[in-house]
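Notes, Module 5: Reading structure tokens.

Key idea: the token line is not a picture. It is a compressed description, and you learn to read it the same way you learned to read a sequence, by spotting repeated patterns. We will look at two proteins. The first is printed below with its tokens.
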Amino acid sequence: MNQVITALIIALSCILIFFWAPILGVVYSGSLELTHPLVMSDNSVNAGYVTGYSADLGKIRDIELSNSQPEAQMMGAVSFRMSLNFYHGFLKNDMSLDIDKITVIFVSPSGSETIPQKTSRPLTKPGWMVIRKESILPIEHANEDNIIEPSESFEILVFPSKPLSPMSRFIIFIQLPDNNKIYLSRSVPGTISSVMYLN
């Protein structure tokens, strides 16, 4: 009897995990912050958890920055996380993303620029790179490659040409290999600190 109850609980849990995605996706408009790791969206990828960094930092996590003009009262870099939209991937059999094939465009009051991917350190302006890879599942670890898989989350650091002043708005456009786009629109806080959570 206990085995039957256990099997029913497991089956019900699987059903709930799979079907909560479209409900939350509709309610929260596909926001990664509120529905992670599953959302209903036209894109195969979710992006969010945006963090800003002051323009006087010489290092973010273990990434050294080439910062010839540090400015403590400006925001100099931004990071965000990306993961697969499992619900979309399951339906369309699209279960991986080559991060090396995305295009990152940064739009600010200074203008629009396509940020090139960099692999060498220190990170120079303008440039972006993967600074952290994590597994969503506690029993697994992220691979060393730049392919995002269903159980992985990548953190991307964007280092634009010009720092942003307090209260200015910016947009990060992420062009995916399948021609879908994701955009993250945020504002710089009125008070600049070393690390600023922009969600």
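Here is the second protein, with the sequence above and the tokens below, as before.
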Amino acid sequence: MDFPRITTGVILLFVSSLIAVGCRSKTDSSSVVIETHPVVKPIETPPRPAVAPATFKVFHKSDTTYTLVVPEDATDEQVESLIWELRDAAHARTLDTLKISQKMIDERKPLVWFHIYRGSKCASEKYADGPPPCGGSYHAAGDYTYGGYANRNLDRGVILHGEDHETQLWDPEVPYAPTVNKRP
């Protein structure tokens, strides 16, 4: 039997148990250490365009879709303002003031799409029979989607720049919060 090795092992075991248990001091045992976490700030909503929303007409309506037509010369900023206006009204339950059925939005199964077109030439491409009037690609200027299969309150707004490019206007996973920077 090797006595110094056993003694060293016992000492190491004793020291490691002290470290594991911790040292106790004669301080007030009623004080509790509370672990704090950093405050997470909400994600800022991107600034809205400083222009009035484009005027629109309801071109077509189905159980899950509204096709809206804005003037052919409407700018991206005007279309974007319209998308923000639709979003605000959907959440505030005031779409009826825009001549859009709030009841349809409230009873969505499970979502409602708003397709926004510049002019009426291509506006029937998603539902008309026969070949699409403007060819096989999607020609909308913007889309607003309220609701979703996994998240009933999901909403998404995009400006469309051709067939394969879109600009997302806000993070659709962040819950809606009314903002103070409303349109002019």
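Summary for the second protein:
- The CA atoms of residues 8 and 14 lie 10 Å apart.
- Confidence is low (pLDDT under 50) at residues 33-43.
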